[in-house]
Every structure is written in C-alpha cells, then in structure tokens.
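thought: fold this chain, then report.
action: predict
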Amino acid sequence: MIKFAANLIGMNDFFEVLKYTLPSTVVFLTVYFLLKQYFEQERIKLYTLQNKERYQTSLPLKLQAYERITLFLERLKITNLVLRFPISGSKPAEYCELLSMGIQQEFEHNLVQQLYVSEKLWEIVVWTKEEILNEIDRTGHELISTDLNTSKDVLITHLHQKTTPILDKALSAVKKEIQLLV
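observation:
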C-alpha cells in the first residue's frame, strides 16, 4: 500500500506539474509562432520598401541609358551621319572610313550604358553597330574606283537603303524593353 501511495503521490505531483507547464507551453508556442510570423511580415515589408527605393533611384538612370542608346542609334542613320560628317575627300573609301571612325567613337562614348540595359538589348546594339560598319565598309569597297563627287548620291542612297531596316529593328527593341520597364 505504501508503494501505491508513493506512486500515487508521484503521479499527483506529475499531474500538478503538468497542470502548470502544459498551459504555459501552449502559450509559449503560440507567442513564438505569432512573433515568427510577425517578424517575417516585417522583413518582407522592409525588403519591399528597399526595392521600391532602389527602383525609384535606378529608374531615372535606366531611362537615361535608353535615351542615350536611342540617340546613338539615331546618329547611326546615314542622313544624320552625313550631317555630322560632311562629304569631303576624293574617294568614297576615305569618306566611309571617316564615317566608321565617327560611329566607333560614338559607340565608345556610350559603352557605359550597357550597365543599365538588358544583356539582350546590348547585344542588339552591338550587332547593329557592327552591321552598319560592315555595310559602310562594303559600300566603300564597291565604289573604290569612283570619284566621291560623282558617287555621293549613290553612296548615300545605297547606305540608307541597307542600314534603315537594321536600325528600325534595333530602335524597336529599345522601345519594347522600355515598355517592359515602365
């Protein structure tokens, strides 16, 4: 009987301890999960706020980069190149080399814009520049034996016809990317 009473007293003590610890454990777990959820939501709010601030800071820079790239592509148009580099010299090849150097200098001036645009768009810009340079080089070699004054109109017309579709596609790609951004 003494053993039974000792077991009973031990069980009573166990239930007495359980009576106080079980509710406090439930409260602890409830508070723990509520606080965990609260801090997760606060972290998400902070992250969202930081992204919003970052976006507000970087958006003007990105738009400026798109403007510069658009300006660069517009300057690649033959009509604009002829205005910037008046026809001089005696040979079409010399004039084409002058145009190529001008394009290359303009491109180097805008190299930093690649930081703000997508990799794909930058590849399109580089490809466009290379295609324009190749077309200018081909045209200069085709008219190598002619006098620049007699071939001036042929040179401009030929380059305009060959380069306009390339430039239109590149400008279209810039516009599409800007629409995705804004």
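thought: worth noting. The chain has a mean pLDDT of 85.
final: tokens above.
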